[in-house]
């Protein structure tokens, strides 16, 4: 698979203090390299100690690990593949029967299990001794005393280790990955009649997820193979992987960027020329940030464009992300495009450098979230959104002055955050998108997407309150008391600017269109055309093989990054 590009960054070597993890390996960070790219009774032998010695294994049963856990029982002479397999069988038997077992010896050569009861009033002769056979490679029970003189005790949670429990939760966690630890405690109490602590439930969950997903180191070690499989199954996609090379030549994962060909081509064909940029925290053993670029299709639905996993949300990572995004979408210097983001300083600076001519809007919801921390209440909320949704400058000035009259400090707070980036009055009018924030289908009869029809109907709710005066075949004046607006049907503009910004006829334009007897739908921007919408999704992201079929690459396997 062809390597797209190579980028090397050198940084000074540093030493880090780190904690030791049971299943994970730690990493250091110095040099960055970016590359694209079921019940039978227990067999009674009496109270005597029966010893097989070292007889030949033929004729003795072989343990079946596939039978149900609560159907397992140790038999004299039974052969196992390892001490661990026998230990699992004895543990299953003890938990099911309620008799405690203590492993006096369990290593690679032999296993000795005794009664684990703590009562000292009488002896408890139950005993199991097993070791390797000399005639074959089998681990065999050679001594078995199965007489239980102790009382059943279902308070033997010491046998319910996270390792044992984890294998009993695989199916539950596969079907319900977000299963809570408290839910697991309840299931354990119901299913096994034992109670465990929250911490043991947590450790059980972690072990089970490791079994399901594989160890963290195994995941990161195959990142190159994964990327090559992505490129094989979806040729033309963009995949960049960044690794960190330490001074001792060990390699660690740093960052990764992905943009599928089907997605970027779909965006170019029919999505609004608006891109939402945001970062969010990743949860898990290894922390990090997920950077995303989101678009809007013709029905105003979220359209994921590209995403990246990085160590931290900072200017350098945003610049790297935007440079790759610019190349994928042919954004050039950003002219004719709009970006919506939060107020992250690194993102703002990176956008200015990579896309100097792009229209940069700030997410009004982020602006208001900051504003309401100091200026809360219904009045301030309504005043803020009235200001943000203003479409003409005179209306904006009036609304912002209302805020100033109520609280000058609130006015200063908002004007210091550049209203040009979060108020509609200052938005461009050629992208047919009035979005000031991003929130988180089909057989259609109309030629335009349903969201446009729905919005147009909502905008026209006050249609009956307007009077229309024609001034030629395409120019009209719509009046409502002292307010008057000029509409040009040929140019598809209105002096209120809402039609210009959104691409959907405002109430004034709808009034003029109704006067001429024409169909309102034909005056909706082509960005909402159903054919364009279908073209966006004409190409699909192709499926990827499981990791058992991924190609093996020759790159050095990276270790997990710092948490």
From TrEMBL:
Region described as Disordered: 1-24
Pfam families: MULE (PF10551), SWIM (PF04434)
Protein keywords: DNA recombination, DNA-binding, Metal-binding, Transposition, Zinc, Zinc-finger
Composition skew (Acidic residues), residue ranges: 14-24
Comp. bias regions, Basic and acidic residues: 1-13
GO molecular function, one term: zinc ion binding
Domain SWIM-type: start-end pairs: 485-517
PROSITE patterns named in the record: TRANSPOSASE_MUTATOR, ZF_SWIM
Domain of life: Eukaryota
Gene Ontology biological process terms from the UniProt entry: DNA transposition
Protein name: SWIM-type domain-containing protein
